[in-house]
Design goal:
Elements (H helix, E strand, L loop, with lengths): L11 E2 L9 E2 L7 E2 L2 E2 H4 L2 E4 H6 L22 H18 L3 E5 H4 L6 H22 L2 E6 L18 H20 L4 E5 L4 E2 L7 H21 L5 E5 L8 E2 L4 H10 L6 E6 H6 L4 H10 L3 E5 L18 H13 L7 E3 L10 H28 L1 H9 L6 H7 L5 H11 L10 H12 L2
Parallel strand pairs: 1-2, 5-6, 5-14, 6-7, 7-8, 8-10, 10-12, 12-13, 13-14
Antiparallel strand pairs: 3-4, 9-11
Helix pairs in contact: 3-5, 6-7, 10-11, 11-12
The protein binds D-xylulose and cobalt (II) ion.
């Protein structure tokens, strides 16, 4: 196997003053922050689909990048060339993990039995590369949205035959995840939603999705999968309304169907903003419910209302993300760059620039989040903000032992409220700025 990214050396940390575009400015893997190395805090992953498959096609134009890696597309040679390219790419960047859909790693055949045979063959090859390099699998998943059979959804389909196909793909993808020792298995509800309620039985569809997930958990556990299952919430696109709208909705669904012990959230930044939330909101909601599992690290665009999957460069966002992650005690999963180069960024160098940007953005976010926590002013403010509840009566309320009548009597005794503490948002934002730009 010959080198594919010939002009690209191994990417090293050179510091923020370096003018070398092929170097890290902030990601210094061995630097220790709050007792752990950056590499331990930030288990980065490469998304097979964006990095090795997507080549720039959009609604208005075809590929701009060459991702053939010297082989004919649609062949097993090409599938292997992508493995070679992917492992060389990850090794050069020091990325420890990858994530994949079944159809990212082989061309789908006409018959699922042949597709599965191809999957066995390619994962043998991937395993060899994993053993050679020490690179690991973060999570696997089944693509149940591209093939036309899934036009009405997979778990939410109206057609029993399609439901069986979804089951077959999930079964195989879990087997592959176990074979590659993946830490997680993802359900992103590609077309699990609807375009119009006029043709949709929402209850029926949601029950079927839950059943499919239950079968997946049972099967996964029966073949030794010990990792987490994840739901990756997204409010819309491709469907007008997707059932896993946001973290709160997905968590409610999991609890309703008794799946909450086996599942956590895989939170994607761009999906959060599509749902009208901040990235930080989705992380916080997952964390306070004990379900912050993994992250799809990317960002959207304020001017565009769709999932642009850009490489993250917004350090406010990455700092507030890392603030949530540090406070939650880290992730069980990792940081998967579910991100793609812009269409005109179509060279091999651009593939590296995308990851250098993303890794540096999260490294800087980690540095700044640790400074915020060590500074302590924000945490202290939040703690003090609720200090009135430290009283006897406050404790009684927190313990669920107070009555409405008792509290009303206290209010009547006071006659009116004299003192409500200020929220201090501007002051806190200014602290954040002073730490970000110190
Ligand atoms: C789509 C998306 C997916 C999932 C995996 O918006 O994020 O690529 O991450 O299916
Ligand atoms: Co994603």
């Amino acid at each position: 196997m010959s080198e594919i990214f010939k002009n690209i050396p191994k990417i090293k940390y050179e510091g923020s003053r370096s003018r070398n575009p092929l170097s890290f400015k902030y990601y210094d893997p061995d630097r220790v922050i709050m007792g752990k190395t950056m590499k331990e805090h930030l288990p980065f992953a490469m998304a097979w689909w964006h990095n090795l498959c997507a080549a720039g096609t959009d609604m208005f134009g075809r590929d701009t990048a060459d991702k053939s890696f010297g082989a004919e597309k649609g062949t097993m040679e090409h599938a292997k060339a992508k493995v070679d390219a992917g492992f060389e790419f990850m090794t050069k960047l020091g990325i420890e993990y990858f994530c994949f859909h079944d159809v990212d790693i082989v061309p789908e055949a006409d018959d699922i039995k042949e597709t599965n045979r191809r999957l066995d063959e390619i994962t043998d090859y991937i395993l060899e590369k994993m053993n050679e390099t020490g690179i690991k699998c973060l999570w696997g998943t089944a693509n149940m949205f591209s093939n036309p059979r899934f036009m009405n959804g997979a778990g939410s389909t109206n057609t029993l035959d399609v439901y069986c196909f979804a089951a077959a793909q999930i079964k195989k993808a879990i087997e592959l995840t176990v074979k590659l020792k993946g830490k997680g298995y993802v359900f992103w509800g590609g077309r699990e939603g609807y375009e119009t309620l006029l043709n949709t039985d929402v209850k029926f569809e949601q029950e079927n999705i839950a059943s499919l997930m239950k079968m997946a958990v049972e099967y996964g556990r029966s073949i030794g999968f010990e990792g987490d299952f994840y739901i990756e919430p997204k409010p819309k696109e491709p469907m007008k309304h997707q059932y896993d709208f946001d973290a709160a909705t997905a968590i409610g669904f999991l609890r309703q169907y008794g799946l909450d012990k086996d599942f956590k959230m895989n939170i994607e930044a761009n999906h959060a903003t599509l749902a009208g939330h901040t990235f930080q909101h989705e992380l916080r909601i997952s964390a306070i419910n004990g379900m912050l599992g993994s992250i799809d690290a990317n960002q959207g665009d304020y001017l565009l209302g769709w999932d642009t999957d850009e490489f993250p460069f917004d350090v406010y966002e990455s700092t507030l993300c890392m603030y949530e992650v540090l406070k939650a005690g880290g992730l069980t999963g990792g940081f998967n760059f579910d991100a793609k180069n812009r269409r005109p960024s179509n060279t091999y160098e651009d593939m590296f620039y995308g990851f250098i940007l993303g890794m540096d953005t999260f490294a800087l976010g980690l540095i700044k989040a640790a400074e915020l926590i060590e500074d302590g002013r924000i945490d202290e403010f939040v703690k003090n903000r609720y200090s009135s509840f430290d009283s006897q009566l406050g404790k009684k309320i927190r313990d669920g032992k107070a009555t409405l009548a008792e509290l009303a009597a206290v209010a009547e005794e006071m006659g009116n409220v004299r003192d409500v503490a200020a929220g201090r948002q501007e002051n806190l934002e200014s602290i954040l700025n002073s730490i970000l730009f110190s």
